[in-house]
Amino acid sequence: MEIVVSGIRPTGKLHLGNYFGALSNFRKMQEEYQCFFFIADYHSLTTHPTPVDLHGTVKQVLVEFLAAGIDPGKATIYIQSDLPETAELYLLLNMNAYLGELERVTTFKEKARKQPENINAGLLTYPCLMAADIIIHRALKVPVGKDQEQHLEMTRTFARRFNRMYQVDFFPEPQAFNFGDELIKIPGLDGSGKMGKSEGEGNAIYLSDSPEVIRKKVLRAVTDAGPERENQPKPEPIRNLFTLLSAVSSPETITFFEEQYNSCRIRYGDLKKQLAEDIIRYTDPIRDRIHELSADDAFLRKVAWMGRDKARTSAGQTIREVREIIGFREF
Ligand code: TYM
Fold first, then answer.
1. Cα angle at 282 between 54 and 211, to 5 degrees?
2. CA 6 – CA 222 distance, rounded (Å)
3. Domain 3-177+297-326: assigned CATH number
4. Comparing C-alpha atoms, which of 7, 318, 317, 315 is closest to residue 171?
């Protein structure tokens, strides 16, 4: 059976971008593939969280995975730092990753700009760790959002390079995956860029946000004075609202507002009200489960332990073969 891997950094609560970029695709894939879904806590160290924050956000993300419908009976859910095999493979991949290619990665350049006081080696070699996460299970598919495309390209480069270097056909080349044709980017509410945790409070809608908070955030979303000509192309903030609408609303609703826009009759207030209600309806079941699961430490522990054991079996097999291929052999 084909293997699927994906992960999310525990840097805060999960938002709609995480949900539509990774989680919802993963939930569909767990029905048909052998799936591993993990919490990338090693990765989050690149931004230096405190131990208390780290533990809290790992728990939060574990709860939200389950609340969003990842089923520990179908998929393997685990915590990245529970798998020392990943760290070993990361070390090995670092030996064949070159400074020039790592410095050219867009996310590295962005992070270096955002945190000039903390451009650590982990940021630079982030793609090596991510490649290790994926190829440790010899995965073929990786459900992620558009922002991870370049990391997947690097993963393929590292897998290919390993195979060529040791003249083996060991690691497959994984593909970023989405159920639609293209990888998606969910926009934020501030009129530019993507939905993200670091972009300011009002930009992201979290899966755990209450209905009141969702209404407030959506109503404050940036718009303009409205179209002046029929069938006028939409400027970015308006296009963003329509992208959100297309993620959560019914085809009739989307068509209705498209027609209103194209005939210059649109009232953004109405669009936002509808969008807020559709987001609330969409996230209702997830929100309820977040509350229930947060209080169930015994269940969370069981999920994490079960996941660790299954993930280590898969990773252990890969690392044993990698050691043999490289020439680390027992006397
Ligand atoms: P992270 O933690 O930034 O985001 C987790 C997932 O959410 C997706 N995502 C989005 N998708 C669409 N629109 C958005 N606005 C949006 N914001 C976030 C991301 O594409 C991602 O799928 N490097 C990864 C974590 C990782 C990983 C891996 C993923 C580590 N190892 C191995 C897959 C496989 C990251 O930082 O994602």
1. 70
2. 32
3. 3.40.50.620
4. 318
* pTM of this structure: 0.96
Q: How far is the C-alpha of 68 from the C-alpha of 23, rounded, in Å? A: 7
Cβ(9) – ligand 1 distance below 6 Å: yes
Q: Which of 223, 217, 245 lies closest to 235, judged by CA?
A: 223
> Distance, CA 167 to ligand 1 centroid (Å)?
32
CA of 176 relative to ligand 1 center, distance in Å:
11
Catalytic choice (111, 141, 217, 272): 111
Q: Where are the domains of the chain?
A: 3-177+297-326, 197-291
Pairing of strands 3-8, 34-39: parallel
Residue tagged 């390993």 (tokens): 162
pLDDT digits (tens, 9 = 90+) for 277-317: 999 999 999 999 999 999 999 999 999 999 999 999 999 99
Please state, in angstroms and as integers, the Cα–Cα distance from residue 164 to each residue in 3, 199, 325, following that order: 22, 41, 12
197-291, which class in CATH? Answer: mainly alpha
pLDDT in tens, 76-122: 999 999 999 999 999 999 999 999 999 999 999 999 999 999 999 99
